[in-house]
Amino acid sequence: MKYLFLILSTSLVFAQKTMDPKLTEVWEPTPELVTPGDNQQPPSDAVVLFDGKNLSKWINAYTGKPADWTINSDGSLTVKPDGGIQTKDEFGSVQFHIEWRTPKEIKGEGQGRGNSGITFQRRFEIQILDSYKNPTYPNGQAASLYKQYIPLVNASRPPGVWQEYDIVFIEPEYDQDGKQIKAGTFTVFHNGVLVLNNVEILGTTEFRGNPKVGRDEISSYMPGKSLKKNIYIQDHGNPVSFRNIWLRRL
Length: 250
Ligand code: MG
Known about the structure:
Layout: H1 2-18, E1 47-50, E2 58-60, E3 70-71, E4 77-78, E5 84-87, E6 94-101, E7 116-120, E8 124-128, E9 163-170, E10 173-174, E11 180-182, E12 185-190, E13 193-200, E14 231-234, E15 241-249
Antiparallel strand pairs: 1-15, 2-5, 3-4, 4-15, 5-14, 6-9, 6-15, 7-8, 7-14, 9-12, 10-11, 12-13
Bound molecules: magnesium ion.
Magnesium ion (MG) binds at residues 115-117, 127-128, 234, 236.
């Protein structure tokens, strides 16, 4: 038996060595050509959501009226106390990029300091917070999936300095009855540092209580009642600024 195995494995190795390497080359499909962006510019296939000029891709999440957050002379955008804005369009799985800055002048503490957030499909919030020497519950600090996952490290820059998120969001899958059959996931880079590594989304982001799972569930603090797949930026009462917002559909 032992010898038979030896003969078989030797001949397998021989077969492998003589196999035509072309047999394992895959030529189709060829990846689409995408021109990467230089100097903070989006790649050529990106959907640009804010480029410093106007808010035509955004509406107020509560009133449905045109978004009117302040556009500054440097091409950045600053929160106005109006509840929050959301994209006009809806999005499934995406690669999402945003740059953000909390106020240089420190006001408040914990969750009250530089708080905003990006909520995907009105139910899953990646937290924005001034988490530079600002203790709070870690599953609610910057780059957490709010109240679900603590970031692997704290890659925060000081208040008043631009920071960035690169987020891969894969939406959950459901059966015909709306029952979840596959959890969604998040991978997040904060200032280029991996902070959430393919974590499985537990359900809707909730301030109180447990996440809710199911196709039609939205976060209890979101406006409206039905699920829509808009991307929402939170007004949490702090003048956080943003720039260079774009995504790629996956
Ligand atoms: Mg928030």
